Protein 1
Amino acid sequence: MAEAVAEGIKRKFDIFQISRYNKLIPHRKAGQCPLNRKDVVIPAGDLEKQRDFTRRAAGYLARLGREPRAFVDTYGCQQNVSDSQRIMGMLREMGCVLVREAAEADIIAVNTCAIRENAEKKVFGVVGQLVHVKEKNPDAVICLCGCMAQRRLVAEKIKASYRHVDLVFGPQALWKFPELLCSVLSRRQRVFSIEEEHGSIAEGIPVVRESGVKAWVSIMYGCNNFCSYCIVPYVRGRERSREPEAVLAEVRELAEAGYKEITLLGQNVNSYGKDLDTPMDFADLLAEIDRIPGDYLIRFMTSHPKDAGEKLFRTMARCAHVAHQLHLPVQSGNSRVLKAMNRGYTREQYLEKVRQAREAMPDLVLTSDIIIGFPGETEAEAMDTVSLIEEVRYDALFTFLFSPRPGTPAAVMADPASRAEKQVWFDRLLDAQNRISAELHQGYVGKTVRVLVDGESGDGAWPLSSRTHGGRLVHLRGGRELIGQYVDVKITDSNTWALFGEV
Ligand code: SAH
Ligand code: SF4
Ligand code: F3S
């Protein structure tokens, strides 16, 4: 069926675009070899050209004789959510209205995640289904972007077997979306832009934010850490920081527009500034942001424990706008496994950082990511992770079973433990964490806390959802008019996942 649809469309040839910009710095040099700023920042003239392409794309789309419609489907982490908001921004500048269903759209972008095999399988299922959209509307343009698109094997599979997909581009090519889309619209040819690049920084791309309450601000892109299990450094390129002035201007604009919660994003925000001409670290950036007046809260993610330290914790404690919340992924509680993961810290060093952070902020809300079943992990080593979480008592955890990612060192390590064994360890970890979360949540009952009401919950009994300063979810009773406001609430009940309260 996919072939029949593809044949209905005139295609001259497929093009793999070669980047004019840069080549990827190899793995071995990533840490020691900061990027040269002039190779990273996209010149204003090139961005202006993209605006020309936006106008041209609008011209092609105007031929529909009605408002063109676009749908963006997002998978993966907050970085992808933020990228999707930029894709939507560019589509809106082309005159598109944003719709909620692929079936209604003329342009469909699926923004994908490659972090685990399951995430990829899901996307292949979704993209496979889009063939039906193309049958009904052969002029629809289907785009696959994000981290999966950057994997050559994925791009080749799409090229060969998913002929209804018109455009494939990785995160590094996002800023060229107008140009890539114009190539598809003008010539009806398939375009693949997945060159391996160290990546760039493009300022001033339009953005559609999801609400007037919360906003994401990327402060840096890419990752140099090459944890041995992780695909991100291969698909997101090398670490590069936005200029502090650009970050400050964006936060100022958001605070002035009344945004109440601003989350700074980066794969490892603690590496911020290492590549700037005038180095400035993440703690310095936080302190600068904190001087921006307004009634807003700053959160950030993610912090790599190897680079988090007392300067950061003391700065967080001192800055009135910065939430006392830290997502500090430990991954494992066993030092041998941590070494095999290439994490750069031991169990003891991690625990010492947690102690320092709590000393600086006794009310700190602490969360983490855990991988169970890393190749070669034994039952005793997995139980070291359970004992670590018992010791730290995280407010919440994000837990994953190891998933081999092709091209990463861990994917070829011997992995003798069975899936069933790993599942048993995983369940023990979850049982322990669920008990800890429930106990910590119980401790809130009877207290009055300040929350930001951020939306509707869809639950008739507790119609509003809100977050404490530490980021814990509170279901509330109250009217819609409270959305976007800070209110004091009395916590009346709790469970493993959330708190319940009344204004
Ligand atoms: N930059 C962040 C993590 C981004 S990925 C950091 O370093 O903390 C989010 C989480 O996915 C990771 O923290 C890790 O727990 C998990 N993850 C990454 N690769 C994985 C893999 N191959 N298998 C299972 N979980 C993985
Ligand atoms: Fe992946 Fe490690 Fe980089 Fe996080 S720090 S994105 S886990 S390589
Ligand atoms: Fe997934 Fe890419 Fe984020 S792999 S987790 S969407 S950086």
Note: Confidence is low (pLDDT under 50) at residues 1-13, 17-25.
Protein 2
Amino acid sequence: MKQILIILTAACSLLCGSSAACAAGIEKVAPAFWWAGMKNPTLQILLYGEGIASAEVSLSSPDVRLKEVVRQENPNYLLLYVDLSEAAPQTFDITLKQGRKTTAVPYELRQRTRKGGDIEGFTSKDVLYLIMPDRFANGDPTNDIVPGMLESKTDRTQQYTRHGGDLKGIADHLDYIADLGVTAIWLNPTQENDMPEGSYHGYAITDYYQIDRRFGSNEEFRQLVSQAHGKGLKVVMDMIFNHCGSENYLFKDRPQDDWFNFRSQYVQTSFKTASVQDVNASDYERRIATDGWFTQVMPDLNQRNRHVARYLIQSSIWWIEYAGINGIRQDTHPYADFGFMAQWCREVLDEYPRFNIVGETWLNSNVLVSFWQKDSPLAAPRNSNLPTVMDFPLQVLAGRAFDEETAEWAGGLYSLYDYLTQDLVYANPMSLLVFLDNHDTSRFATREEQTRDLARYKQALLFLLTTRGIPQLYYGTEILMTGDKGEGDGTLRKDFPGGWPGDGKSCFQAEGRTALQNEAFDYTRRLLQWRKGCEAVGKGTLKHYSIAQGCYVYERRHGDRSVTVIMNGTSQPQELDLTPYRESLPRTEATDVLTGKTVRLDGTLKLDARQSLLLEF
Ligand code: CA
């Protein structure tokens, strides 16, 4: 009997690649495998298969202890909790006995190949490059349509259909990305989104443990991370714990109705997540904001259910351990349960102390955003444990600041200065993600005419890459791609020119870019390459000065190295009295990194309209 089972299992492995998932009657085993020697010794193993709940469960291993078997209202699930504190790497059998029928599900505990502390998260020394995988490059046209998946076409003329981009497309252009000078890539979700339509963006996950086959395989994802590391690029993986896609088996054939909020019945979220931290909010509003569903096809997971919580936490740890990712970007962070999200961050950081997590905190003021950052005094005694939050208020201000005239008390660069004077609200301003745009906002160059104003572009990039925080660039910014949210989200996610076979010109090469694009690209590349070696900007403090004559001056300092930025925020030449800035101008001359020219710093300084200086000391 045992021999027959082994033969059957081997045959199954050939068919579907996962021996555990293929034991008779078992459709899913999640996670498919795990590791011995993890800090948290308890593992939840979710088994899914028709009618399996009536089985008696036993384990063949002497050192893996079965702590708890949980049955749900749906007879197609078994939730096992096992204790691995004494377990060595091994493959053991989970034996399911139903009457005279016995099924052995082999389960592998792998040897850890890295220690938790080996995983290095992203920090303010890094610059993230955000890529929407469906829209960056199509490295493998044969995976564009996968038979059996629900969306069965690609159409590059339509903004909401799939375009065919994939992991191979990203792998093929890692040299381009590394040469640009960014040090990390953040990919919009790559996990399976087997939905009938509109899921090219990846935010409707149908299997948390599976890379979407139109992007590639789990193994290709692991290889991409490894290749990226080889080129000095960290990788940030997007995850979504607030909701999943309605085609997810955990929703379609859910274990119990309490796995989803409002007992699995659609109630729309208000999107008004300010109510979470609003001391004046009603309980009703708070509940609708966090427990309401993102859309009808994105059911809202109930993270207060301990089985749901364990499933989600383990899925993130699985990807870190399996693929060696350096960070997670958590979607719609404030929409999920505060207590659960805090527990998740704590558990991940306990296991990987140098890891980083950035939560999407799309709120319109620094007070509201700061609430979500680890150790926020405004949230105390609660603590989100979330190290990095997104500086959306600064993104909005930066979108206007470089178009306006700067005056002493209003407009232009004043708004950036004024905002940064309020950094005391943040527990850790250096760990804010700063950005000009992302896949959900209008691009920094919203309209075509803005691409012709390179002074605007250059000042904005200089600010982004030298202010406090962790800068994030959106793919295509370096070649002046445009996008207006008013014309639909798909227009913010245009294909990178040259990413598809048959594209006429390729912007991956200088020859394919216009003169304007090359000027933007070269400027951005020079700044990014310079920033990599600049500890004053990567790790240093920020000191800034109030606006005078429409100019904004600030210093970044680490030890005895410093950088001082001087920006003319007006369309007139200015002659600036340097007296107020002496403490940030330690010498009477310095080299301007932007031009390589020596600048005299005694008396006054003449600046052309919209001119910037990047002085290194
Ligand atoms: Ca493809």
Note: Residues 11 and 19 are 9 Å apart (CA to CA).
